[in-house]
Structure formats: structure tokens, C-alpha cells
Amino acid sequence: MPPYACATVGIVQVSPNSRNTVPGRVFFTVDFRHPEDAVLTQMDRDLRQACACAASATSLEVEVKEFWYFPPTPFHPDLVAAVRDAVAAQGYPYQDIISGAGHDAVYMARLAPAAMIFVPCVGGISYNEIEDAKPADLTAGCIVLLNAVLECADAAASGRG
Questions:
Q1: Which residues make Cβ contacts (< 8 Å) with residue 91, sequence separation at least 6?
Q2: Which of 40, 69, 82, 156 holds its CA 20 to 30 A away from the CA of 5?
Q3: What is the Cα–Cα distance from 6 to 43, expressed in whole angstroms?
Q4: Confidence category of residue 73, pLDDT binned at 50, 70, 90
């Protein structure tokens, strides 16, 4: 599963919500992300098995529901390479990441080649109302985007892409 497997508990609701009362009900969400569908399926199986074992050992009831599934969407390798080349040409530090989120680019990838560029955000929080990116990082992202687009346009004009 490593290095791209990720599981996030994003919502936890405990009832009653009291510091000195054993809760009678707990609801939480788990968001799995990985670039391979088979790994996502295994992560789901593992969660269900762990919940069933915990429930059995403590005589509790557990219900696991899948309410949303989005298959992994690989981005176009030529566009990803163009972004890497643009970053390298500017000398910026970078790392490849697997988002797994339902960004607009995921929907566009169904229709045309797509890729994404992320810039650092304070606390790693993005696509959230408290997102905060430094102007210099946003400028760097725009420079990378411009250079990647120019590289793809040059490749298309010369018959390489």
C-alpha cells in the first residue's frame, strides 16, 4: 500500500458528547485514497474486518456503509512530465503527490488529457475556506503552469505531442 495509501477520519460525532459519559453511539467517516483500485478495495475490506472484530470482541453493533466511491484517475503522463520539467527548469523543490480528491481536473481527465499543480499551503490545508498560500508560492505555481503549457504547445507545434 505505501507510499500512496491514505486513510483520513474527517468527521467524528459522539453521542452523548460529554467528557465523562460513555458514548452510546459513535459515527465517523473514513476517506481512503490510493492510485490503484485494487488497493482501495483491500483497504475497504481491512476496515470492515477490523470493525467487525472490534464489535465482536466488545459485544457492540457496527454498521459500515459505503456512500461514495470515486475510482482512481491517473493523469496524462506527458502532461505530468511537462509539469516536472517546468519545475526542474525553475529549480523549485517538488514532490509527486497522489491527491485522490475530486478536483475539477479529475472530471476534465475524462474528456481530455489533464494534470495538476499543487502549491504549498499553510498547515497543508487546501480546497478549504481556511486555505492560505503565500503569494510567492502562488507565483511559482503560475510560472510552472505557464512553462508546462508552453512546453506542450511547442511539442504539439513540432509534431512531438
A1: none
A2: 82
A3: 9
A4: confident
Spatial separation of the C-alpha atoms in residues 42 and 1, rounded to whole Å: 9
Inter-CA distances, 10 with 13, 52, 93, 102, Å: 10, 21, 29, 15
Q: Write the DSSP symbol of residue 91.
A: T
pTM value surpassing 0.90: no
**Separation of alpha carbons 117 and 105, rounded Å:** 10
Cα–Cα nearest to 98, from 33, 159, 39: 33
- Give me the count of residues in the chain: 161
- Per-residue pLDDT tens over the stretch 129-140: 999 999 999 999
d(CA 78, CA 84): 10
